[in-house]
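User: structure tokens for this one?
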Amino acid sequence: MAAPGAPAAAARAEQSPNTERAEPYLRIRGLTKRFGAFTALADVDLDVWPGELVTFLGPSGCGKTTLLRAIAGLDPQTAGTIEQAGREISRLPASARDFGIVFQSYALFPNLTVRDNIAYGLFATRRSKREIETRVAELLELVGLADQADKYPAQLSGGQQQRVALARALALRPGLLLLDEPLSALDARVRVRLRAEIRDLQRRLGLTTILVTHDQEEALTISDRIVVMNRGRIEQVGTPEEVYARPATPFVADFVGKMNFLEGRLAAPDRVALAGAELRLAAPVALPPASRVLLCIRPEEVVLREAARSTDNRLLAEVAAMDFVGSHYATRLRILGTELALFAELSLNAVRDLGIRPGARLPVRLPAERLRLFPAGEPRR
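Assistant:
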């Protein structure tokens, strides 16, 4: 159960997933960025470990792109420090920092071929023509574009253009790869395929990578850890499983995935009284008696099968509405004898086997171990 003051502690506790790695590759302390009277980043602390893929996730305006640009030196911070591989880079210009970057817009040169776009950054390194040709050939093979080398960007699909941008970012063998919403301009099917390719490539290279996205599915499927941001602050840092299953704040619970929120009061340290129902918690919580609380459960964690055989946290519900969404039914339940409503995600098998239809009445169970509790009044969105 989450307790008051838990979010910041949870974020700090999850900063170091592997204590055997003595030093983070990227160490950010007290990072603040102001634009006039507006604070875009507020005292951000973060460690990124060697070889990790870390995703900055949050709604528009939360500060995730501002944080990425500060790391790159494209929009330096107002206060705070950044260290990369033990080197202080806080005040270095972007050109003196060790990173490659891929933007949402690709930023390819339309008058250059794929080969020359990838080679562009190499020309300034005083390498021989042969070295450049060899490196470009390696990268073309790496991103699967060896047969497209002499084409121009306008002759490529969006996914192919993004592969060119990725190859160009890798050309100088950077220690850090920055990806600023690189897939958001692509259609859904291409996005899914390309993010898998990026993840596979990142793992093969062992390249420390930071991805910015507002796409929850993308963050959950591609990341080693997720940094959930809101209003210039970090709400939670954790693995995808930790962020989804154990959200540290109501904002994280609401933003990542879908969530039912039920308002109530503590009837006992391990029981919550709702409007016409009482539910048991898996463990006592350290809150004053009769505290107003917010109880949360994911729609897919509402149990229907075997619910009739259990008296623990069992409620009688009426099916108010069912929407077929392909892999499951998004179902709205009205809890009889209360003012409560719940959303549940029901599998096609469950709907068929239990004969569930709008208007049907059936028992449901809210497993105590799946309930999350927060003090009432903490902001959600």
